[in-house]
Design a protein that fits this description.
InterPro entries: 2-isopropylmalate_synth_dimer, AIPM/Hcit_synth_CS, Aldolase_TIM, Citramal_synthase, LeuA/HCS_post-cat, LeuA_allosteric_dom_sf, PYR_CT. By secondary structure, this protein is α/β, with parallel strands linked by helices. It has 3 domains: 275 residues, Aldolase class I (TIM Barrel, Alpha-Beta Barrel); 91 residues, no CATH class; 124 residues, Double Stranded RNA Binding Domain (2-Layer Sandwich), CATH 3.30.160.270. The chain contains 18 helices and 16 strands. The strands form 4 sheets. The chain has an 8-stranded parallel beta barrel with strand order 1-2-3-4-5-6-7-8, surrounded by 10 helices. Strands 11-12-13 form a 3-stranded antiparallel beta sheet. Strands 14-15-16 form a 3-stranded antiparallel beta sheet. Bound molecules: acetyl coenzyme *A (ACO) and pyruvic acid (PYR). The site of acetyl coenzyme *A has 13 residues, from strand 4. The site of acetyl coenzyme *A (ACO) has 13 residues, from strand 4.
């Protein structure tokens, strides 16, 4: 059986996504990650189209790729010319990659309207360019642009493009759903028909405009294509390309294809997130397989079954793609949810039905007031610890705090000043903090008051702050929920506070954040 090529186009088609802009260094880093995942091919960009892509191919020669072969992407030669004299084709050779992927027209209206040439000349462009590149020692893949729409309009011509490319020496002809409008049954029919009529080795390249890019890619492979293109996290023009990790996971874990070594697929979640860091696009939590929520369970009924056997509410083992099961605590939790969450946090709560029932009730009561524990694991862990140990973990005793804000003048911005009085390490501290707003001032004052007793707090940094008005019908009287995320440079945690006053809500979240952070660093109350 022919092995299926796994062909990644994150660096070319993925980079066509709105708002995604990669430097040469970013592209090199992503290429190294893709190689670690074990993909067969990395399409690096279009040499000659812009200086960045040209530079990428120059520097990519220094990459020590263990698995992947690099592909340079570009178009067939210009109409009316010859491939050997075409500067764009020469730029593809100058990229010095083992593989060149050519985009070619296969839709008659595109040939006539976009390329403004004859159908015969388009075939000549395909033939000449493929032959020239093969003659120069390159493996050539041909992306037949708008293939499916073109096949519907004029199947004979679309087929002729496939035959011409294959006869000229293209190893693979990838059928592209460029406008992303196809549905799986259409893809199945067309791929099957083209395979029968041409005998060419076919590939598939899908866009997600109908939400079917992954399904269409899987359908094409099941219909006989043996080369699949996609991008990490489904990046790409408009609604994106087929998400390569989802396609590969589906083919490998559900249909038995042997595409990536299992130990590499088990890095998929890490890779997806590492690439999100580079693209600076927040990972999509509900992404299949690798999203943070892909195996997160909120409903109590689910948890009660998962406790017995995780397979009962999971379509696959999350570890196969490097993910893990999580239990969410909320007002939809039951005793089993708390027991499972406790297990995640290192507490064995089995056989403690009264404690479990008490925690369920506390959570439900607090959620009614606006708390949302599934977004603030650290606040839940402190609550659970309190219920289990029967005591409040306290690193400092607050005596009072207050904050004042001067009115803003045109000549000088508003200034806030907070005063915090507390006892820590057996000593009373009174500290004043200034800030550009009340939240900032409170943060400074609390840190200053604790600096002597807990120098570890110096490393804690606020990295996210979210405010939500809970009962908006009351306008400025509304209850407010503040969620904050804090980092110590190695890990991060989320805490929350709910109060009528936004600064008070922040204060609750901040105290919990410092308490949790110190606890996790193994610091004893002083
Ligand atoms: C379906 C896809 O996503 S394919 C990938 C598309 N990616 C990109 O377009 C990103 C990179 N592109 C670019 O930087 C530029 O468009 C370039 C450098 C390639 C070309 O720029 P320009 O020379 O200024 O041309 P422009 O972008 O206006 O038009 C594209 C030209 O390529 C021609 N062309 C389009 N497809 C093909 C093809 N398969 N084979 C040969 N020529 C083609 C068009 O007819 C047009 O020709 P014209 O200049 O005679 O009108
Ligand atoms: C080649 C390509 O990116 C497309 O047809 O969508």
């Amino acid at each position: 059986m022919t092995t299926v090529h796994v062909y990644d186009t994150t660096l070319r088609d993925g980079a066509q996504q709105e708002g995604l802009n990669l430097s040469v260094t970013d592209k090199l880093a992503i290429a190294a990650h893709l190689d670690e995942l074990g993909v067969g091919y990395i399409e690096g960009g279009w040499p000659g189209a812009n200086p960045k892509d040209t530079e990428f191919f120059r520097r990519a020669r220094e990459l020590d790729l263990q698995h992947a072969r690099l592909a340079a992407f570009g178009a067939t030669r210009r109409a009316g010319g010859v491939a050997a004299d075409d500067p764009q084709v020469q730029a593809l050779l100058d990229a010095r990659t083992p593989v060149v992927t050519l985009v070619a027209k296969s839709h008659v209206r595109h040939v006539e309207l976009a390329l403004r040439t004859t159908l015969e000349e388009n075939l000549a462009m395909v033939r000449d360019t493929v032959q020239h590149l093969v003659g120069e020692g390159r493996t050539v893949f041909l992306d037949a642009e708008h293939f499916f729409d073109g096949y519907v309009l004029d199947p004979a011509y679309a087929l002729e493009v496939v035959r011409t490319a294959a006869e000229a020496g293209a190893e693979v002809v990838a059928l592209c759903d460029t406008n992303g409008g196809m549905l799986p049954p259409q893809v199945t029919d067309v791929v099957g028909a083209v395979l029968d009529a041409s005998g060419a080795r076919l590939g598939i390249h899908c866009h997600n405009d109908t939400g079917c890019a992954v399904a269409n890619s899987v359908a094409a492979i099941e219909a006989g294509a043996t080369h699949v293109q996609g991008t990490i996290n489904g990046y790409g023009e408009r609604t994106g390309n087929a998400d390569l990790v989802t396609v590969v996971s589906n083919l490998q874990l559900k249909l038995g294809y042997d595409l990536l070594p299992p130990e590499r697929l088990a890095h998929a979640m890490h890779l997806s997130h590492a690439i999100s860091e580079i693209t600076n696009i927040v990972p999509y939590g509900r992404q299949p397989y690798v999203g943070a929520s892909a195996f997160a369970h909120k409903a109590g009924l689910h948890a009660s079954a998962l406790k017995v056997d995780p397979d009962l509410y999971q379509h696959t083992d999350p570890a196969l793609v490097g993910n893990s099961m999580r239990t969410l605590v909320s007002d939809m939790a039951g005793r089993a949810s708390i027991e499972l969450k406790g297990r995640e946090l290192g507490y064995d709560l089995a056989g403690q039905p009264e404690l479990l029932a008490r925690v369920v009730k506390t959570v439900k009561d607090l959620e009614l007031q606006g708390w949302t524990f599934d977004a603030a694991d650290a606040s839940f862990e402190l609550l659970l610890r309190r219920e289990v140990t029967g005591e409040e973990l306290s690193y400092f005793d607050i005596e009072s705090w207050r904050v004042l804000t001067d009115s803003a003048l045109e000549s000088s911005p508003a200034l806030s000043e907070a005063t915090v009085k507390l006892t820590a390490a057996g000593e009373r501290h009174v500290a004043v903090g200034e800030g550009n707003g009340p939240v900032n001032a409170v943060d400074h004052a609390l840190r200053r008051a604790l600096a002597g007793a807990y120098p570890e707090l110096d490393k804690f940094e606020l990295i996210d702050f979210r405010v939500r008005i809970l009962d908006s019908a009351y306008g400025t009287d509304a209850t407010t929920r503040v969620l904050i995320e804090t980092s110590n440079g190695q890990s991060s945690w989320e805490t929350m506070g709910v109060a009528a006053n936004i600064v008070h809500a922040y204060w609750i979240a901040l105290v919990d954040s410092f308490t949790f952070g110190l606890l996790k660093q193994g610091i004893e109350p002083r």
